[in-house]
Specification:
The chain is built from eight helices and eight strands. It is α/β, with parallel strands linked by helices and 266 residues long. It has one domain: Rossmann fold (3-Layer(aba) Sandwich).
Length: 266
């Protein structure tokens, strides 16, 4: 069974980023996992187990989530990308494979473009480039997510993330956000994601890149995957035919082959 090393990484503004390393020891390569908006490292519950036969996995609690100590203030995907680079520095990791999902994919875009020498490969799932070139969710989805009734919002989340065949009878998922977050931090995350625009950065990504998406994703429409893949040199595109926003969780076994080909092309 894997043991977890937990560290608190100091940042120049007084933040202390909580990070977790698990998996193989020694010379095993590192896989940095970046989760979605308003979520801690718990987003990767169960999923990271799939990768620890070959990697040391590294996760982090974003500012405003989990065990990270955060002085507050404006957030950006650039800030979180620099936090991720600082985590790798603190753990003594020179280069890593990076797998970002949803807003974590936005953070990963910035990290890959601004720290190209740190990247071995890049996997981007259910994400978008942000800015005017992004394909936005429709008004029906927006209204469902903003419903005043909590149960209505939760049902909307389940339907947006998972297909009816999903196996959770309780309707609970580790992808539905960090329950310890306060309203101020949730709004900071929402604003940060809305401000993201990596259009000019994407052509500067030079590592082998795989863009993954579920074709039935209405939270972040799958058209964004083609936009990103066309913008990154030699990026490969893999669309899951029935997956929704949480396809990488519900259909993890289906996309394992594409990920493993990225990580071990030989």
């Amino acid at each position: 069974m894997s043991t977890t090393r937990v560290v608190d990484v100091p940042r120049h503004d007084g933040a202390r980023i909580r990070a977790q390393m698990r998996g193989r020891d020694g010379a095993a390569p590192t896989l940095l996992l970046l989760q979605g908006q308003a979520s801690s490292h718990a987003w990767w519950t169960g999923l990271r187990d799939r990768y620890e036969d070959r990697f040391r996995t590294v996760t982090m609690d974003y500012r405003g989530t989990g065990g990270t100590q955060d002085p507050g203030g404006d957030l950006s995907t650039e800030v979180l990308a620099e936090d991720a680079a600082a985590v790798l520095d603190h753990l003594g990791v020179d280069r890593a494979h990076v797998y970002g999902t949803s807003m974590g994919g936005r953070v990963a875009q910035v990290l890959a473009a601004r720290h190209p020498t740190r990247m071995l490969t890049l996997a981007l799932a259910c994400t978008s480039p942000g800015g005017p070139h992004a394909v936005e969710r429709d008004n029906e989805v927006r209204k469902a997510l903003a419903a005043p009734d909590a149960q209505t919002r939760r049902r909307a989340m389940v339907e947006l993330f998972y297909t009816p065949a999903w196996g959770s009878e309780s309707g609970e998922s580790h992808l539905f956000g960090d329950p310890t977050m306060n309203a101020v931090d949730k709004n900071r995350h929402l604003t940060m994601s809305a401000r993201h625009d990596a259009w000019d950065l994407l052509p500067h990504i030079g590592c082998p890149t795989l863009v993954l998406h579920g074709k039935q994703d209405r939270m972040t429409p799958s058209s964004n995957a083609s936009v990103i893949a066309d913008r990154i040199r030699d990026a490969r595109l893999h669309l899951h035919p029935t997956g929704r926003h949480g396809f990488f969780d519900e259909f993890a076994a289906d996309i394992d082959g594409a990920l493993r080909t990225l990580w071990n092309p030989s």
